[in-house]
Amino acid sequence: MKYSSQTAHALSVSACLALAVGLIACGGGSAPTAQVEDGAQAALSITYDLDIPMVRYELDLSLGDKSVSAEMGGPGFTGEGWETSLEFPAIGSSEAVKGGSMTRHLTDWPATLRQHGKDWNSALNYLVRDLCYESLLGMNPTTQEHLPGLASHWKISADKSIYTYRINPKARWSDGAEVTAADVVASWELRMDPKCLDPSSAATYGKLEKPKALSKYIVEVKCKTPNWRNFLYFSGMTVFPAAEVSIPGDEYLNKYQNAYTANSGPYIVKADSIKMGTSIELTRRTDYWDAGNPAWVGVNNIDTIRYEVVFDLSLAFEKVKKGEIDYYLVPRAQWWVEDTEELDAVKRGLLVKCKYYTDAPVGTSGLAINMQRPPLDELGMRQALQALYNRELFIDKLYFNEYLPLTSYYQGGAYQNRDNVLYEYDPFLAVELLEEMGWTEKNEEGTRLRDGVALEIDLSYSSKFSESSLTVFQEDAKAAGIKINLLFETPATRWKNMRKKKFDLSSTAWGALVIPNPETSFGGHLAGLDDNNNVTSYKNERVDELCKAYDEEYDMARRMEIIRELDGLVYQDMPYVLAWYNPAQRMLYWNKFSQPAWGSTRTADYDELIYTWWVDPAKEQRLKECLDDSKATMDPGPRENRFWKVWGESAH
C-alpha cells in the first residue's frame, strides 16, 4: 500500500510522554513482571524521540518501452519541468520483518466485493482498496504532501486547469501486464458509466473532461472548472486494468460482483481465499512491482491478513480472549475500563491493551439543530441548549472518563481552531439566555411561554445506548423551562428525516475526512435543499466566502488557515449541540506484534494502525511459551502511545 489521497502521511526533537514498544520479558515466577499499571506509568515518564528518519524513493529513469521517446515518458525521461517527491519522512520502520499472520473480524459481509459501482463502499472494500490497489499518486501521512504512486511525476498547468502524469514504466499488474495511461482512461470511463449505478462517483469525476493518453506513459486530464480538489480526487482515483474494465457498466457489475480484477498493490485476494459470507484473506505479494523500494521500508509487513465475520461485538470480544482474533478495537468504555482488567492474559502481558492517540480525523457528534425552525433559528436558543447539555456528567458517570468534549468541527490535527473555548454546562446561563429572548412566562407544567407559545422541542434519536444521556438532558431542559420530547426512530427513518430536514433536534454522529470538505456540511447554497449533509440548514456569508477560497487554494498551509477561520465561525454559530469524542483508538491485541517507534502513521484509525506493524518472531515464540506456562509473563509495554500528539505540539 502507498498512502493514497483517498485514505487517509528532517524531523528532530525530543519531548515528554514516550513509547516503549512491547519488549519481551524474561518472565516466569508466580507474579507478572510487567503489570498493566507499570506500563501505563511508563507512558508518562519516558520521552519520545521525534526524529523520524528520512527515506528516498528509488526511481530508475532508464526503464520503459524503447519505442516511447524520453519526452513522452520513455527511457531517458528527465522529469525536467515536472513535480515529484523523492525524499520524505519514513512511513515504516527499518527494524520491521516480513511474515506471519493476523486475524481480525468484520461485523457484516459486504453487499459486493467490487471496487466500484452500486453498494461498493463498505469497510472491507476500503481495506482491500488500500492494500491491493493503487492510484496515480499517494500521500505522505506525516506531511500530507503527494508521493509517487503509479505515476512517478506530475504537473499542473499555470492556469490550474490541466493535470498531467507520467506513469512509472516499472509499474505492473498482478498478472504481469504493464500499467499504462490507457488504464487510467478506462478507469475514469468506468466511473462515468451510468450503468454502474454510482451517481456520486460520476458527479465527482464528471468535473473533469475525459482523460487523454498522450503516450503509453503520459496521461492528461482537463478540469471543467479549476479546483484543487479535482487534482486530489483524480490523483487518488483507484486505477483498474483497461483489459478488464473496458466493458459496459452493467456487465462490470455482474462480472465482478464477488471477484476482483488484476491489481497493482502489495496485497492480493486469491479467489480460493474468499468464503462467501464467512471469511476473506489478503495475501502479501512477493512479486509486487515496487516491493524493494527503500521508500516503503517497514510497510506492508504481515504475510496474511484474515477477516472473519462475527456479527455480535460481544462474541468478537470472547473470540479475542480465546486467541481466535488477534487484533480488536474495544468499542465500549466499560469493557476497556473494567472487563479487560480482569483478563489473566492482560495481567500477564500476553494480551496488550494500548491507546493510540493519532491525528485520525474526528467527526462531529451531538444534536443536529434544524436552524430553519423557530426558535432554533435564534443563536441564544442554541446557546441555551448547549449550556444544558451536561457533557462533563455524561463523560464521568456514563462513559468512564474515556471521552473528551468536542471543541471543534475539525477536532484534533492541523485544521482545528485552537482558539475555540469549551462550552461548559451552565444551567444558570441557559435560564439567563431564555429570559433575555423573552421566554419569561410559564404554563402550569413549568414550560416557558413567549407570545403564548410553549417552548417545546422534539429530539429524534435511533440508539438505545443514548437514552441515558438524553433523558438527563431532557430533565435539565425541563428544569430550565424547555419541554423536550424524545422520539425514538429507526436509524433509516431518522436519517431520512434528517436529510429531508423534518426534525427539530436529531442525535447523530458523522464520520470525518483526512482532508476536509466544508462546503458539503456548511455551504449556504445547500441550506434550503433536501438530501445533503448540511442538515442543519446552516448559512453564513463569510463561511461561504471561505469555502470558495478553500476550493481555489492549491497551497496546503493556506487551506489549513482557511479551515481554522471557518471552524471558529461555525463553532460560534452553533449549528449542533456538540457532544464528545474518543481521543484514542482503544486496541487489544496479542503480544506478537511490533511497530515503529511512532506506533502508526500520523492519521491512522484502528483499521490503518496495522499497515506498519509486523509479526515479531521473538515475541511470537515467547507468546507460545507463555500460553503453555500459566505463570509466564511478557512485557506489554506502555498503555498509551501519544507520539503523534507530542509531535504535533512540537515545532512541527
CATH architecture grouping of the largest domain = Roll
Task: Supply the CATH superfamily name of the largest domain.
Answer: Dipeptide-binding Protein, Domain 3
Strand order of the largest sheet: 23-22-24-17-25
Q: What can be said about the biggest beta sheet?
A: 5 strands, mixed
Mean pLDDT: 91
Strand fraction: 15-25%
Give the helix/strand class: alpha+beta
Shape designation: globular
Low-confidence stretches: 5-43
Q: What distance separates the N and C termini?
A: 26 Å
Number of domains: 3
Helix % is 25-40%
CATH class of the largest domain equals Alpha Beta
Radius of gyration: 26 Å
The helix count comes to 20
CATH fold assignment of the largest domain: Dipeptide-binding Protein, domain 3
Number of strands: 30
List the SSEs and their pairings.
Blueprint: E1 14-15, H1 36-45, E2 48-49, E3 54-56, E4 87-89, E5 99-106, H2 123-132, E6 137-139, E7 146-148, E8 151-156, E9 162-167, H3 181-192, H4 199-205, E10 212-213, E11 218-222, H5 228-235, H6 242-245, H7 249-255, E12 267-268, E13 279-284, E14 302-309, H8 313-321, E15 327-329, H9 333-339, H10 344-347, E16 351-356, E17 365-369, H11 379-387, H12 391-398, E18 404-405, H13 427-436, E19 441-442, E20 448-450, E21 453-454, E22 456-461, H14 467-480, E23 483-488, H15 491-499, E24 505-509, H16 519-522, H17 541-552, H18 556-573, E25 576-578, E26 580-581, E27 585-590, E28 593-594, E29 614-615, H19 617-628, E30 640-641, H20 643-649
Parallel strand pairs: 5-14, 16-30, 22-23, 22-24
Antiparallel strand pairs: 1-2, 3-4, 6-7, 8-9, 9-11, 10-11, 12-13, 13-14, 15-27, 16-27, 17-24, 17-25, 18-26, 19-20, 20-21, 28-29
Helix pairs in contact: 11-13, 17-18
